[in-house]
Amino acid sequence: MVLSTSLADLNIDDSIELELQGSILTLWLNRPESRNAMSLNMVTAIQQVFSQIADDSSIRAVVLRGKGGHFCAGGDIKDMASLRVEAANTGSLQPYVDFNRRFGAMIEQVDQAPQTVVVVLEGTVLGGGFGLACVSDIAISRDSAQFGLPETGLGILPAQIAPFVVKRIGLTQARRLALLGLRFDGHAALNLGMIHQLAQNDAELEQQLTETIQQIKRAAPLASRATKALLHRTLNEPLTSLLDDAAQQFAQAVGGAEGQEGTMAFIQKRLPNWTEQ
């Protein structure tokens, strides 16, 4: 499959696979033998992709999913073992710090991506995979998926994902899940507000994904990017200045090409031209 110009020259290893269909990029986590546990190579590859497409408005959505029936089992234990050797050889904890922070930077990058990020959750959704799911814009899950934050049971912390979990489901629930290391299924994830849609079988999962992509294509590309950025800003900026700036953005959108096309399509009772992209 031919990738866009922004992706064609990327030199990434086989820990992920990319599949581009029109304006929709699917990023497959591709380590099925380890239930797609996140290695440093995988983290680096994901960062490379999101850095490369940040300014590519032709890519409207990124779908994250895992090969082999699992989303992601968390961090790769083999990487942790090699870090232990490196830390012992250097007499420093810095290798652990650098690895952990690198993962957090990747999660933050996915969170801030201008594209609409969709996760398709199956099988294992643990630790870092749980964190990755928490920064999605739309989360679709099988009812049988198994979620959890197992870190405290392993004697470690969910250090980099904790802030994103709290933003997703709130402090009270995050405390309960993290401190007890609970495992739960898709029904509980839906009740927590972690996911948005639940599928009872694989066919329903694919159908919900297809419908979600159709809805993404109904939204204007530039308006979607600006809206996502605006929503992120609501958590950190004073309200009055934010609303002043939002009014300016609204005016520019109304007078811009997308606003004019959207208005005309509504009047003419047709779909706007961007739905075909």
TrEMBL record:
Q: Name one GO molecular function term.
A: catalytic activity
Which Pfam family, giving just one, matches this sequence?
ECH_1
Domain of life, per the record? Bacteria
Please cite one Gene Ontology biological process associated with this protein.
isoprenoid catabolic process
Q: What family classification does the UniProt entry report for this protein?
A: Belongs to the enoyl-CoA hydratase/isomerase family.
* Name listed for the protein in its UniProt record: Enoyl-CoA hydratase
Q: Which organism is it from?
A: Acinetobacter vivianii
Lineage of source species:
Bacteria, Pseudomonadati, Pseudomonadota, Gammaproteobacteria, Moraxellales
